Amino acid sequence: MNPINVRASRPAKRGALLASIAILLIGCASDPNRTTGQSQKAIQSPIDPSNITIASVTEGLRLASLSREPLASTFRTKAAKLALASGQYEDAARILGAIQASNIAPNATVDYLLTKAQLALINGDPGRALALLNQKDLTQFGLSDPDQIALGLTKANAYQQTGRMLAAARTRVLMTPMLSSAAVTDNHEQLFNGLMTLPTALLKRYANDAVTNDLRGWLSLAAMTKQLQNRPSQQLRALTNWKKLWAGHPAAQQLPKRLAFLDSVVAGQPKKVAILLPQTGPLATAGQAILKGILAAHFDQGRESELIVYNTDQWPSTVDLVERAVQAGAEFVIGPLDKDRVTELAQARLKVPVLALNRVTTLTPRSNQNGNLFFFSLAPEDEAKQLAEHGRQLGYKNILLIAPTDEWGDRTTAAFREAVGTKNDIRITEKRFSEDESYAAFVRRILKVDDSQSRANDLKRITGLAFEFTARRRQDIDMIALLASAEKSKQINPALAFYYADDLPVFATSLVNQDNQTKINNLDLNGIRFCDMPWKLIPEAPLETQIHQAWPEAVGPLGGLFALGLDAFNIMPRLRILREMPETPFYGLTGTLTMDEQTVRRHLMWGIFERGAVTTLPVVNESI
């Protein structure tokens, strides 16, 4: 997130006065012929801190070194603000750290708190940002219009980052009249995108309770958009009706980006779609589950397209099969599933768009010269990367990475390390376990509990004294990333608690969240936070309930493949928008979907095990 940078015009005389003061201060500070008394007299003359301007961070720090409090802290505050606006985040933090809040002049308080809050947002601590901005009634300092804008938008961003989307939307609505036309467009995009993360039922409830028409209009538009996102034709008709009902609303004058191109989405829906999936052979079970998901989405949309289903197990060449589908009139292809077949397509020229349901890990964006080939899969690497990103956002620096010694463990640990990167101060201690070893002994060893016991034994032997001793774990870790199955995690997690690591946060992938498990069966997973798809964390969606009734196997381990089929069909007409506007995601059942270099990326939700039950995070209760 970028810091908010607001400029305001000032009267000419006041600008000239400030320029004169700046020149006077700089001249006094830099002229070697002036006496110390003259410099001190100039620096200590009464100056309104709100009138101080500096041209650079260096100038601000230099003037601070020549000043007494509270003027010195005012100069440092200005320097920190300028450093933040220039992207010098570490410098801004270091300058702010040298300022004592008690030394801040009243008229510099807003700049000081706002800069600290914006820096907290950049560092991924929106709670801290809100605490800073809410600790005082800042209106007592006579806020200028730029100050009000900066404070309002910073609060809105902080609310949004903490999941308080309604508070963010309310704040953005109130800020709109103060913004320039360009800023209004960006503000409305962020407002609408934030609301779109909320469930439809919640949006409808908020809309019914909204006090102002502007907020009610945004909420009703988001509710309609979210409810009909999988039915573009119906969504377009509903949008037309909404615009008639809310003719004077800001969104009716300028639609959010995701709706501005809705007519082209509807017009671009393929009339005939080829489905390339295995219905026999070793991948038949997976292929059939995905196909059922596609069929469910097809009927939910009103069967606007014609489907042609091909069994890839009966075709040696996938390129030939795609050509056959095109000759049969297919305008779009979903599949194949097998990685070798996807690799085959990556080397071919494709006449129509193809959404492959796997990805080729060895294929680089540069080597993928086919603009018609897209990739969408449930890759475990994406989940491992999200764990790493989540830990980094929360500020954890010393991570214990636990994974099995197998091919899956190799892939996920490599993805985790790639997401952490090398250009930071995060340290990863990687420990791998084998299938047949004692997990209690493994945990005791990696936590170095035995080392603690050995040190105590050495001390007893050296001193000859008998004393009570409690073993300790290693103290150089602050987070545990557990890349393991549910069964393995049920053995490792209790061992972590037993060997004194119960105070450390444990993060895992969706593999720990099995379907059809009782609370008693999941007690050993208590405290684990994990990422997973909405299909599993929000199972009460109407369409999902219908699928469970029609195909009971969708409730079990195959459920994710049903969701993959649903999302593959639903994003089909939106691939171009996902590619051209990555800031407008699609909220699917497999996750929040965006596109990066023609690969659909999934951003998952978070859950936590509490008393054997799964609680979806974050739990945010807001009221109008």
What does this protein look like?
This protein is α/β, with parallel strands linked by helices. It folds into 4 domains: 12-162, Alpha Horseshoe (Serine Threonine Protein Phosphatase 5, Tetratricopeptide repeat), CATH 1.25.40.10; 191-266, Alpha Horseshoe (Serine Threonine Protein Phosphatase 5, Tetratricopeptide repeat); 271-375, Response regulator (Rossmann fold, 3-Layer(aba) Sandwich), CATH 3.40.50; 381-533 and 608-617, Response regulator (Rossmann fold, 3-Layer(aba) Sandwich). Strands 7-6-8-9-10-14-15 form a 7-stranded mixed beta sheet, with helices on both faces. α6 packs antiparallel against α7 and α17 crosses α27 (559-571).
Compact summary:
With 624 residues, this protein is α/β, with parallel strands linked by helices.
Give keywords.
624 residues; alpha/beta; Serine Threonine Protein Phosphatase 5, Tetratricopeptide repeat; Rossmann fold; seven-stranded mixed β-sheet; five-stranded parallel β-sheet; 15 strands; globular; disordered N terminus
